[in-house]
Amino acid sequence: xxxxxxxxxxxxxxxxxxxxxxxxxxxxxxxxxxxxxxxxxxxxxxxxxxxxxxxxxxxxxxxxxxxxxxxxxxxxxxxxxxxxxxxxxxxxxxxxxxxxxxxxxxxxxxxxxxxxxxxxxxxxxxxxxxxxxxxxxxxxxxxxxxxxxxxxxxxxxxxxxxxxxxxxxxxxxxxxxxxxxxxxxxxxxxxxxxxxxxxxxxxxxxxxxxxxxxxxxxxxxxxxxxxxxxxxxxxxxxxxxxxxxxxxxxxxxxxxxxxxxxxxxxxxxxxxxxxxxxxxxxxxxxxxxxxxxxxxxxxxxxxxxxxxxxxxxxxxxxxxxxxxxxxxxxxxxxxxxxxxxxxxxxxxxxxxxxxxxxxxxxxxxxx
Length: 367
What we know:
About 70% of the residues lie in helices and about 0% in strands. It is mainly alpha-helical. The C terminus is likely disordered.
């Protein structure tokens, strides 16, 4: 990849290269960015083979029938000798490559067909491969004068490979290191916005579409939704804020103050004792009644919070089972999307873009 990369970027690029070797479905993405090793190998082999010495003419034995048979075999071997090199060229053109080179690929196919026709019409004669060799060199180096690539095109595609395709890998690596702050926590709103932006960029870049990468993004969306569900199940303040009606207390007015309720009840108790000692019976009675009602309301709210927590924990367990089944390939994208809508009818945890990703294409069972 052109240009200097930072340490983290270099690690991410190495991770992409590792996945490229593991999953051949990613090869078209690298090829579109002008990064392919197999093409260079095939071109070099074809060019070397075209320069090999062809079979030699058989000796004349004096037997016309035998000489005719040997000559026929010689011509067949001569044709096959060069056709094997042309077959390597055919194989090269079947591999993914920079889309802008498609017209050049058609020109190479036409040249190969003409060479085969010429060899049929002129048996046992060496054709002129100079034009084919020149076209192959231009095809590999991406420098045909009639098909100039826009400046920065390949560099931009390589940057997209790292920024968009590498994003799920970046999140995965950041999650393994507690001191890595390359991405926000999965349960945060910042990550939700960042994920949406990256997924939208992926959807808007068709040449990046791959079943493997789509699966990565879908899994990342599921993991983030599960992390938010677990956060809500363990966050006391979030659970309390979800209650429909709350008894007036200091914690309602100051939700960020952890000891608000303890201070509130201590203040009410102190005022009640002071009113009793001061023989303010009406005020003391009202304070005692208010304190009793507050304690009762607090207990009722705690019961409601625990019930809500149990509900969220059960939903998180269901989401975890659905996520694991999808990861193992035992559930189809359409069925997953249907189940997610049942689990999260208001898209509170699963964004709509996740459903768009699941409809992008079907996955193989081993994706």
